[in-house]
Amino acid sequence: KYIVLILVITIVSCKKDRNFTSEDIQLIPKPAEFKLEKGSFEFNKNTKFFINNDEQMQASEILASKFKTVTNWNLEAVKEAPSSNYIQFIVNNDLEKEAYTLNVNNNVIKIEASNFSGFLYGVETIRQLLPAEIESDKPVKNITWEIPNITITDAPRFKWRGLMLDVSRHFFEKEYVLKTIDRLAYLKMNTLHLHLVDDQGWRIEIKKYPKLTEVGAWRVDQENKPWNGRYTAKLGEKATYGGFYTQEDIKEIVAYAKRRGVNVVPEIEMPAHVTSAIASYPEFSCLEKPVTVPSGGLWPITDIYCAGKDTTFEFLQDVLTEVMDLFPSKYIHVGGDEATKTNWKTCKDCQKRMRTEGLHDVEELQSYFIKRMERFISSKGRILIGWDEILEGGLAPGATVMSWRGVKGGLEASKQGHDVVMSPGTHCYFDHYQGPMDTEPKAWGGYTPVSKVYKFDPVVKSMTKEQAKHVLGGQANLWAEYISTTSQSEYMIFPRLTALSEVLWSSKKNRSWQEFTPRLKSMFTRYDFQGINYAKSAYTIST
Ligand code: TNX
User: Fold this and answer.
1) How many helical (H) and strand (E) elements, i.e. helices and strands, does the chain have?
2) What GO molecular functions are on record for this protein (predicted)?
3) CB of 364 shorter than 6 A to ligand 1
4) CA 479 – ligand 1 centroid, Å
5) Which domains does the chain have, with CATH numbers?
6) Atom of ligand 1 nearest to the CA of 432
7) CA angle 38–131–520, rounded 5-degree value
8) What's the pLDDT tens digit per position in 318-345?
9) At 486, phi and psi to the nearest 5?
């Protein structure tokens, strides 16, 4: 009996004395500063969130719902100060947006922030400090939900920390989009760019133009055939693959994202990558010939919007009006990439437009096109953003550039005093291989292992201080030509997004690949609990 008693006492006292070491702190992205102290805070069913407003309540719910799942506790949010065992949310307007401080001290945790995102990130940090089992989707027994006494001061390096999902080439169901939003917030990322339009599918309901989704959202199913055999369906052939988000779906996505500090940026491609729209309304193209929604790669893309007809612009303004009503995003993406302007060269309306506007070539006509859209978008108080082709023929006055063909376009835009988001194919294209081609699933091409993503820096070395200020941040793009399931999408996104989150959040001097890799490995345990199909090969290959 005595032996048992001594054993119990030893175990209990060991637990109390558990001393965390810096190896227990495996946060990604790495916080700006942290100081570990002796002692710890232990969650139990009486732990309370001490809050003042709805925003703080929403942030606390992220953690409360995790505890509900694993312990079945209903951690309460209260507005009166409890005597101990609570997490207090404190408004501190000296802190920048998204910044937070976290102080864990035996019986009390304090999170200070100036806005919702800051509180949310404080909570997400607590989540990462807790045992990995907090991520389980099933009840977990025999765990002490303890986190070390620690003081963290943290703020992001960049304000645009994004991921793009190509929902056109592969239609991702709403549920997967919502899951992706959770995962972004978990890594303190704040932007989800939805590529809603491309040749192979139009994915958003537009009330004024129902054919966009009746026709444009569907193609002949070629999901299991290689992308590179160009396949263009015959007119009238049965189109069964596809889908789209209703306006109700979009509202749900946007509201869900807001509660996770994520801004959803819609992309409505123009003038090219729009065969799905032309298939629905041929009258907005130069040739006005009926076409079908292609199932595979389409190159070059010649069926583009006609830049000569005013009706094209009216159509696009109507579309964007509905889009802007749904998406509160300050930035509205209009694509602008890879337009083969063959038809513009022979189209009478386009020729006339060029004469009346005094344009010398089709590049200037594309620039006219984007500038005209930019006037419309900025008249609504929003900012146009487009792929770096929008620089050609002259950049629209208020435009922001998303640089994908390397960082060149971004550098040029910053020189012209425009804001940029860096998303170079070399480091940010998650449709590239992340390991040897013979062992990895078929991908677009290229080689972008997680270590290369980690080496990315959105600020170009040759930039002046002034130019660097125009770099809003960076973004990963998941083009989906070769994606046919959500689990494959997860495989391409993770763990590369984990590396990118640190690139975009943590200061440069705070980053080291050697020091990052053990943290990445420990993140895998959390991803296992979250049920994410990350590329397990990535870690061994890159270290
Ligand atoms: C180029 S990046 C495209 C996409 C393709 C991608 C494949 C960009 C603006 N356009 O349409 O999916 O390459 O990596």
Assistant:
1) 19, 21
2) beta-N-acetylhexosaminidase activity
3) no
4) 7
5) 17-154 (3.30.379.10), 160-542 (3.20.20.80)
6) 14
7) 100
8) 999 999 999 999 999 999 999 999 999 9
9) -70, -30
